[in-house]
Fold each of these.
Amino acid sequence: MANSASPPEFNSLRRLPATPEAGGIRTTRLQEAAYNAQLAAGLPISNLARAVLIKENGIINFHHCASYIHAVQQMEWFAAAFRTYTGPVTVVGGKGGSHASAVDRRIKIGTDSRYNVSQCEQACLHELAHIVTPDYGPGQELREPPRGRGSRKGHHHAWRVNFVLIVRKTLGKQAALLLRYEFDQWGLPTSK
Ligand SMILES: [Zn+2]
């Protein structure tokens, strides 16, 4: 489970993009941990991403992110796992970090996430996991405190489980195992 197999792109990423989803609100320790774990997992790049997330003039156009996300949504396993979420989400671009609104069924893949294919694919999958994991669980109860030290800012257990599933189906079993391992290391277990 060592990370010696991390793709070279990750070596240049010394720190994570600043609070991509907090929208100006300070990140919590556990929210930060979710990004760190994802980075540490050194996830591979899928063939779909290599084919679809094409760089033009040094950056991937957000329309390609939309194509990628919609393609994932149309996969058989996705429909089986997330049947009420197969309608294509709205994908927008813009400067800065990435963000998802499950309520509006809208994903922003910001410029920070579009300079390399690996980061871009991970942002698409990360945000898609937010779409299929609203912060309110069954019975409309909040899955975690909305702020404060206990908050993972949406990176709660239900999100992690769905993200790991999405990673397993798109990036493979080994990638999912690495991600689970790193979530665990960062204090964000994915077991029941
Ligand atoms: Zn997130």
Note: Confidence is low (pLDDT under 50) at residues 1-24.
Amino acid sequence: MGKESPKRKEFKCTKMLREVMAKHFYELDEAAKTGSKKIAWCTSVGPAELLRGMGFLVYFPENHGAMLGASRMASELIPFANAIGYSPDICSYLTSDIGSFLRKKTPLQKAYNIESVPRPDVLVFNTNQCRDVYDWFSWYGREFGVPVVGVFTHRNIGEIKDYHIKDISKQIQDLIPALEEVSGERFDMDRFKEAVRLSKRTSELWRQCLESASAVPSPWTFFDATIHMGPAVVARGTQEAVDYYEVLLAELNERIEKGIGAIDGERYRLYWEGMPIWGKLRALSTQFAELRTCIVASTYCNSWIFDQLDPDDPFDSMAVAYTELFIVRDEIYKEKYIKDCVEFFQCDGIIFHDAKTCPNNSNSRYGMPLRFSEQYNIPTIVINGDLNDLRCYSEEQAKTNIEAFIEQLQERERRSSTVV
Ligand code: SF4
């Protein structure tokens, strides 16, 4: 099976993607140099709409963390954060990002000729994803001597209750005085609602893009989506992000209409649960393509769908959107969520990535893979690795395990055709 190496099919809109991402970084760099606009750093699922609505340019350190991983600079930089007391066992976005700052080395230099990440005027977090983001931002707060404010969220939520929403909504509103003090401007409700509207529209389009992978063959893979999700993370709440996803969605639909699959001869479809292994995306993408296997969906890429946002009820709807997130929920909710996705995207199995430094986004540690195979008859595999720290990842072992998993799917297919 799969002797020749299939080529990844590029999207025509990749050029536009690069332009959107470049504009994002050049604007921040310009503002940091000239002071023309205030800059807020924000966690990836933090209250970005409020910040945009209050006129801040928004920078996302986790996006920088992913760039450090994808450029494979992370493993070299992590030890510098370890040396100042940040453990190798905690989030490797955090350790590689702080290491990058300490060493004054960033992938922005090569990609955009930008010397350093933009200096923040304020750092704004939401602990909905983990506590690490708070510690991460607190380090920079001390380093730059700027305020660190944010939302402390509920965790392991089953059913979302009114009191969850009221609490988070109030915490978001309580950020306003501190942000006004930094921005020097009064909060403007209309501008905020407009940011929420644009963010909602971005999310609706991003959802449609992701759901297009339910087509058989799928027009794109998880590996494509990890690249094209950039604007959903860094530019949600802007017209640029909306424009970009309209174009991407049209291209995905065009592929579906023409029957063009991302993987020629798509044979198996899988669900990816957990963080990407940023430094090995290309190698994994090639291996799966050779195995005629398309990873059609993932919890990770779905994490930037916030279509519960409502410009007519901006605070409460933000509270809902940022509390309904998969990562905030309990094990029962997560299991059902993944099962529904597996059915919707017609997956043959699930890959669980157990990321050593991110227990928050690793769901294989409390029996879930076994429950999927035993209760639902859905084959699963667990790959040990990490989002950024490649010292935690054995490529050879992962490769062998993936091959064995696909053989298991083949065997299963053979058995079921014999039974028929
Ligand atoms: S969720 Fe995981 S990867 Fe993301 S910031 Fe938290 S620990 Fe790091």
Note: The first strand starts at residue 39 and ends at 42.
